[in-house]
Amino acid sequence: MKNRNIDKNITEKLLNDLIEGIMIIKANPLRIIYTNDYIEQIIGYKSDELIGKNSKEISEIFFPDDRDLLLKRIQDNISNKHAPQRYEFKCIAKDGSLRWIYASSNFIIYENEPATMMILVDITQRKATEDLIYNKLKKFKEISENQADWVWEIDQNLRFTFSSLGIKDILGYNPEEILGNTLFDFMTQEEAPVRYKEFMESFRQASTIRNFDSYCIDAHGKKVLIETNAVPYFNTENQLIGYRGISRDISSRQNLLMGQMSLNKNKVPIEKQYKVLIAEDHNLTAKLLKVMLLNSMIVDVVGVVSNGMDLFEKLMEQKAEILLLDLVMPEFDGIHSIEKIAEQFPRLKMIILSAHTEPWLIQKALSSGALGYLTKYADSEEVIEAIKTVSQGRNYLCKTTLNSITNNFITNLAPDSKFMKVNISKSLTVREQEILDLIAKEYTTPEIAKMLAISTRTAETHRKNILKKLGTKTTAGLIKIAMETGLLKI
User: Fold this and answer.
1) pTM tops 0.70
2) Which structural domain range is residue 91 located in?
């Protein structure tokens, strides 16, 4: 790089007006001889706290693992040796927080001596977003790989960029075999142009695609009826860059329906295949669910319970293979009870029934031991499909819950999104737990303040914090979520 002789008086005024941090370092001995005012916004140190720091003091600002490498790069830049001019590193801010910094280093002549001028940009927020995207993508793919359904992603050219193992069960292909192809490449010749036109209408409007049925040809030449639901995803500039979706084979539903019609017509009894216990405290819902399962002719309902105590007593009889479980019942601690059931009855397959479709709750239920998750609006075909799938030890999520997870993955990538706020692992403080219990007992905020000997304003602040942590805006929603997650004992 061509050397530039920097005039101190003229330059320092210009550098102080920049919204990047500027640091100039000289050698012999290595020391900081100038920083602009903006550096304080990045690492918390004022100029007079940094100027004059030697190599040992400079290294203490850097993250321990990066210190030797960064000092060498600074020295190489001052010596005008070949060294990376742009790089990222971690440093420790004055308040002790970890900051990610992007640096651009330039060899200069400053006050007639060789030096390096470092332009520093705080990229901590960007790194947090990258980590969040990575972790969410990892969770998304982990859930996807254990689904009976086929979860996929396409780019703006409609070509597959990701496919779960579900494609193997549905069309007989390995995931890597379909990457670079489009869904329409697998459709029948008659159907492909028609479905392409329909799909592109939604694509151009960046709208959600629901119940998109199409006939595809599998790897063995067999025609398969597939139902697809998909949602768009966007880049940081809100430009559509593709779709993520879920496809499932629904030809088996038609076969099952036709088979049942034939059996009913000929009045041929069939042997019950799945022993199911229903745990649901809403009497009408439990009765309807029982009738629906018995009418399927492949389920034997071994019992119906309406509270946690009866549930555990019934499970001790060891007749049930599959448990359809409502998260909210008397004498039942939600997520904590799922963990207890999974520990005591490891062979039992659990399917959660819930009106809630929050992604964090679904993931918590699955990680606690449940294999399936259904909303109470799931149709009979989905309930039967869930029972058949979890009986094989595989996860099953109904369309509504899968759509919820996919929507959340796409729309909540920002660090300030609801996904980050609603984190069930973020437990309440002791005081917040006390206030939550009193709210559940229908005490008002002034009454709670008086009982706990705190101000009404403080009690109201605690209440707002509880609502924020549990991701709800109403007291009813707070109680519901607290019961389901076990934060509130019934």
Assistant:
1) no
2) 5-122
246-298 pLDDT, tens digit per residue, is 888 887 655 555 555 455 555 444 455 899 999 998 888 888 888 888 887 78
Out of 122, 139, 161, a domain closes at 122
Q: Token pair 């039967």 is at which residue?
A: 384
- Output the CA angle 324-325-329, nearest 5 degrees: 145
Cα–Cα distance, 56 to 48 (Å, whole number): 17
Is residue 15 within 8 A of residue 35, CB to CB? The reply is no
Rounded CA Rg of the chain:
30
Name the residue among 333, 354, 223 with its Cα closest to residue 282: 354
Quote helix, strand, coil % in the chain, to nearest 5: 45, 25, 30
DSSP letter assigned to residue 472: -
For position 467, which CATH number holds? 1.10.10.10
Per-residue pLDDT tens for 97-151? 999 998 888 888 888 889 998 989 888 887 776 666 556 555 555 555 555 678 8
SS3 category, 355? coil
Same domain, residue pair 296 and 197 = no
The overall average pLDDT reported for the chain is 81
Cβ–Cβ under 8 Å, residues 224 and 216: yes
Q: What are the distances in angstroms from CA 466 to CA 290, 361, 439? A: 37, 16, 11
Locate tokens 């869930």: which residue? 386
Q: Which CATH number covers residue 386?
A: 3.40.50.2300
- Any idea what the CATH number is for the domain that residue 57 is in? 3.30.450.20
Q: Count of domains in the chain?
A: 4
Contacts of 42 (CB under 8 A, 6+ apart): 21, 93, 99, 101, 120, 121, 122
CB atoms under 10 Å from CB of 43, counted, come to 22
Give every strand in the sheet of 223-234, ordered side by side.
160-163, 150-155, 240-249, 223-234, 209-217
Helices 445-452 and 456-470: angle between axes, nearest 10 degrees? 110
pLDDT tens by residue, 462-473: 888 888 877 777
